[in-house]
Amino acid sequence: MTVTQAPNVSGALETSDRVASHLHPEGSFDVADHPVPSGKEEWWRFTPMRRLRGLQTDAPFAAGGCTVTVQAPAPATVSQVSIDDPVTRESGFAPTERVSARAWNAVDEATLVDIPAEAELDQPIYLRHTGNGSDVATAGHAVIRAGRHSKATVVLEFSGSATVADTVQVIAGDGAQLTVVAMLEWADDAVHHSAQHIKVGRDAKVKHAVLTFGGDLVRVPVSVDYDGPGGDVELLGLYYADEGQYLEHRIFVDHAKPNCKSDALYKGALQGKGARTVWVGDVLIRKAAEGTETYEMNRNLLLTEGARADSVPNLEIETGEIAGAGHASATGRFDDEQLFYLLSRGIPEPVARRLVVRGFFGEILLRLGVPDVVERASAIIERELAVTGN
Hints:
Layout: E1 4-5, E2 13-14, E3 66-71, E4 77-82, H1 98-106, E5 109-115, E6 125-146, E7 151-172, E8 177-186, E9 191-200, E10 205-212, E11 217-226, E12 232-241, E13 246-255, E14 261-270, E15 276-285, E16 293-302, E17 308-317, E18 324-332, H2 336-343, H3 349-368, H4 371-388
Parallel strand pairs: 5-6, 6-7, 7-8, 7-9, 8-10, 9-11, 10-12, 11-13, 12-14, 13-15, 14-16, 15-17, 16-18
Antiparallel strand pairs: 1-2, 3-6, 4-5
Helix pairs in contact: 2-3, 3-4
């Protein structure tokens, strides 16, 4: 087996069966393995480091920064387990950067959401996180485990003022059908870094969605790997950035098993001076992943002057024996043809602009399929549109 040093990854190795891309560094639970980032690294090159409030350096973590309430229909259970419990390593997650490694080592317990095998829940499970202030940093960890052939929806809600670094692991057993929605509706002063990892069992289907509306700085890297053939993942993202906000989303899908699927669709709207969003997508198709079918799409709508959206889709393909692979990215202002069509039918321009934005996000909301979340997200979008009169 040939071993070569991988570029731009401190201490990481690239082998024929394990690829350490500069886009997705090797993981480690040891904080010492993750040097303090300078902001020049590929992983951090977009992020305004000074706005992380020391989460990437040595800011102390304290308890009580967030209050968590739980709503879980039977037979699902929610409990606290030791961070050293084997379930916290079941997904194969390991922090790939310093913030998540620090957060992992700062907590003694993890919240475990357990859905038994064969269970079908007719109501979502809710974990509601309410920030109690942004002056001190808080760390958290959650594990969502869906048993074989179960069917469930889990909603993670975040609101209030806080400085939070957390990790979320999602484990979908063989044949499970699991929807996980992260609803980030922070106050304007919140800072949130949330590393989320998904392990997909044989023939399992996972829908994962991130809806980001508030916060001063929010950064959500999502990673996916497969535990058997036939896995199917749908990654959805919806974000709306206002003046001065920085919202960054990243995905990494590691296709290492044959005949698996992944479909990523993230859409964002930006308004106001200094509104900034970043989306980075990376899909790795390994040699063993024959029959892979994957597509990633990011679209951004600039509603005012002074906003900026960066979009970087990537594909890394090691085998030609795949069903299909592609990516696309588009960033622009209102579609003139759509506006003209609506205006020509007597619809006032402010109303026409609202209709265009609603239509832009409509595909995400339709695919989301969680009525309560869709209703709330739609209401937030309407409030955001009212800010600039769009």
